[in-house]
Recover the amino acids of this structure.
């Protein structure tokens, strides 16, 4: 569903899967600075929106997904994962309960599949599931809506808006009004997301990803709740083993003009490789997302093998890169991620 904000002069469409929203509006670094300072809004209206109502909704979602939701208070944002039976991530939901229904947003193009699965799992429970993407648009603003006008001048959100932390679900008919805030494109949002070490489903993940690998064990998984699909893998890794891969933050060589796109192979640098110098370098991971940050320069998130030394210099598609640890090699076995390793978005 193409955003009407793409009709604004200067708007440039992003690439798939975000082609229906703007990558930027002509001022990449200015948009980043405004967004980081709480003075801009990002159009993410290509994301799917799902509503789950009915008196059994929280208990039901608690039994299906990785987060403890049965006691979730109204108005408190949360993240949860829907895993397959082997513990691999299928959906990442950002959600809130408003006292009458749970509202969640998911990656572009995935709401229909999520709703189809949930419909099959209703049985005799008192729940109703609806894909309301056509009616609600996701926009993101740094900080709560109630930020003072001195720091973030904005109009009050229209009636019917659902707040999920920094995300708002606006009635889609109100999207063109965009709260009276200047617009920042998705490139600005993604640069701040990467700098904050926050993975995105389909970018820092593939069809084999388990929660421990990308740090979602800290934000979207409750380790002492009841059973749910995929829990056996989560518990086994957390108590007995280590995930096979780990998320890393990359500082990229700033002298190179291009950014390595999603899926670019990550290899060890020549000085760190063993064996025949003429042999092809072994791929040890892949680039998830990359961006040019207004302060940090070119940066990326990548998923690499757990056994890659934390001090090993890497190449991302031939671009020199140094690592910053996000998920440590000893993750699992009750080892938690140091919160100090996570950057803040603001």
């Amino acid at each position: 569903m193409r955003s009407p904000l793409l009709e604004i002069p200067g708007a440039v469409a992003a690439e798939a899967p975000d082609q229906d929203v703007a990558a930027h509006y002509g001022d990449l670094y200015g948009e980043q600075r405004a967004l980081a300072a709480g003075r801009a809004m990002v159009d993410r209206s290509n994301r799917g929106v799902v509503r789950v109502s009915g008196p059994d909704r929280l208990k039901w979602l608690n039994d299906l997904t990785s987060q403890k939701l049965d006691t979730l208070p109204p108005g408190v944002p949360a993240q949860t994962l829907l895993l397959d039976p082997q513990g691999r991530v299928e959906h990442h939901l950002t959600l809130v309960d408003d006292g009458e229904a749970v509202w969640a947003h998911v990656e572009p193009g995935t709401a229909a599949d999520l709703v189809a699965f949930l419909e099959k799992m209703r049985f005799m429970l008192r729940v109703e599931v609806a894909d309301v993407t056509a009616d609600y648009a996701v926009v993101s603003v740094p900080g709560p809506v109630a930020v003072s006008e001195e720091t973030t001048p904005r109009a009050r959100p229209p009636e019917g808006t659902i707040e999920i932390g920094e995300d708002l679900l606006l009635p889609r008919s109100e999207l063109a009004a965009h709260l009276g805030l200047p617009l920042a494109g998705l490139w600005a949002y993604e640069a701040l997301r990467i700098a904050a070490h926050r993975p995105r489903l389909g970018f820092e993940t593939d069809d084999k990803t388990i929660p421990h690998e990308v740090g979602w064990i800290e934000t979207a998984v409750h380790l002492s709740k009841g059973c749910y699909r995929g829990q056996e893998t989560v518990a086994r890794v957390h108590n007995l083993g280590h995930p096979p891969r780990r998320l890393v933050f990359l500082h990229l060589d700033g002298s190179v003009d291009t950014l390595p796109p999603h899926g670019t192979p990550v290899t060890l640098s020549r000085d760190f490789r063993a064996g025949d110098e003429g042999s092809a370098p072994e791929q040890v991971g892949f680039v998830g997302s990359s961006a040019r940050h207004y302060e940090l320069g070119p940066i990326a998130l990548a998923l690499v093998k757990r056994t890659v030394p934390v001090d090993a210099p890497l190449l991302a598609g031939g671009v020199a890169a140094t690592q910053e640890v996000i998920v440590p090699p000893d993750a699992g076995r009750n080892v938690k991620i140091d919160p100090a390793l996570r950057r803040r978005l603001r």
